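Example record

The entry below shows one chain as it appears in the dataset: sequence first, then structure tokens.
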Amino acid sequence: MAITTLSFSPPLDSPQPLFLKTHNPSSLTNNNSSINTKPFSVSYTPTSSSPVHPLRLHKSHPLHFTIPSSSFHSSSSPPTSSSDTHLNNPLAGGGFLDAEKSEILTKFSYTDKINGGSLMVRVMGEEEVDITVQLLAESFAESMSVPSRFVTFLGFLVKQYVRERRAVLPHAATLVGFFKREDGKAELGGTVEISFDKQGANASPPTPISPVDCPYICNMAVKKQLRRRSIGWHLLQASEQLISQMTISRDIYLHCRMIDTVPLNMYKKAGYRVIKTDSLFTLLTFQRRKHLMCKKLPERHNLHSDMVGAHAEPAS
């Protein structure tokens, strides 16, 4: 699968251009990262009117960074933004419905057997941020064309994005899939991000733009050494299962690059259909053209129907 944006839509196996968005630049922290071998450029454009600032990485001409040094804080000086409470206790809801959703996220677990072992998928915890960021950074390393010396810098940006997405829980969530071998050894095998509603939607979504109030799947990445074991397929199934518990909406959207035939075929097999495709003008922005795909889930008992007179009972 290929990475598209940070609302990014990474691939299971193939490369894709990257758009990184980050919220408050004053809260940047540090970590690792990765990408491919052609020159690229990074530009950072803060805006005072919005808490979300676009940070775009794309294949371009000479490498240049236009990120103001004042945007970076030392790791010893943590930010004091309103999202701190969510970072310390990311599943703490702001009301009854949020509390119910948070409980579903806390209890959610998807397990299935795969080639060579089993896969267990659940919501990413604070202690798994670093390894998830590393996996995403490695996916970017495969998806873009930049020298390896910029891998750490990219991971630094990815970590900021991941932390800020945790701040919007339970309106969005990152899932992690742990592959357990038959000998009992376990390791992170894949990750995927889900936005459940408008409050969890990315401020600068990739094109073609999907409805902001509908569930959206993106940033799926599978560890290179563990591919061809259907991990991507199970991450997709786990995402759909969680969405069916978290929202009344039946329509799920995702993006896939036109050139990424492996993930495209997987999505079609799972029931997703292409509803819109980027125009040729997208190529002028140094991006690959993408399909917007949609799937309608079957009606089933969900959180919102359970809210009338009873508590939701999330599946384990």
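Notes for this example: Helices lie at 84-88, 96-107, 129-143, 151-166, 231-246, 261-269, 303-306. The chain is about 25% helix and 25% strand.
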